[in-house]
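Exercise 3.2. Students should predict the tertiary structure of the chain below and write it as structure tokens, then compare their answer with the key that follows.

Predict this chain's 3D structure.
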Amino acid sequence: MRSRHAAFPLFAVLSWGVMFPVLASALTRMDALNLTTVRYVLAAAVLVALLLAREGWTALRAGRRGAEVLLLGVVGFAGFNVLTNLALGHAAPQQIALFAATTPLVTQLVRWARDGVRPRPALLGLSLVALVGVGLVITRGRLDGLGQFGVGGLLMIGAVLAWAIYTHGAGRFPEYSPLRYTTLTAVAGTLAMLAASAVADLTRLQHAPAAADLVAVAPQLAYAVVVAAVLAVLAWNTGVRRLGAADAALFMNLVPVTTFAVQILRGYRPGAVELAGAALTIAALVAANLATRTRAATPAPATPVSAVTDRQAVVDPVAVLAR
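Answer key:
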């Protein structure tokens, strides 16, 4: 059962791994903020249409949780995507993708700070192992290469923190379907990006794209909207609902490995250290999946334990989605 649920975050992270080189090529024709805004205006329109067709007009109302939805949308969609695109202007895609692998660690720390749930030692340890593997992949065993990230690295630290907060937030909306949570937060983030883009264009901090620019990046936008923004985010939020934020976030370690594979297809030739790092990352993810599956199969104690309860572990996602 958990293997089937794992397909959702796996699809998402593979899609995002491909996204970094795709967006890097589009940034040669458009400013980062405008590119992100155009992408999510289109993606939000698709998501709203899907939500209306599936759940009706009432699903567009957040009610008393409107402020929380707005904050998560601004942080997750606007924060992560704008900072990532800005970072791609300062570093190579495979370097930027390395920071995505820190998401499992950051998500567990956010969960600890927000809910008081201490990270499970096994998951924390396997996250660190996977991160070491990713570091070998990207740096080819030369850790001094980490110092070359500069501004791009600082921007990605902010982006990863934003996505960790958004990922944790997804588990706090058990009454929402993954489609509803994704759509409402995407609309909130898009509105924030539209406002920021308008201000940046009017103050000439960036230049509004010409029609020729939009045509030139149409293939990249098609992938970034349909696959990376709509299908991947829906799959991600579904995976978070079914596996929990900490377990789903482990799959983020595959993002830089995927980006690295794309670069190989474009002509890059890896060394033995890089291949060893990829194998280490995949092995850590498999071990984490087996560990969480074993833990899920262990019967709960008959006597309640007076400790902080992980809500994501006790909510039945299938029952929630069937409401």
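Discussion points: Residues 32 and 295 are 43 Å apart (CA to CA). The chain has a mean pLDDT of 80.
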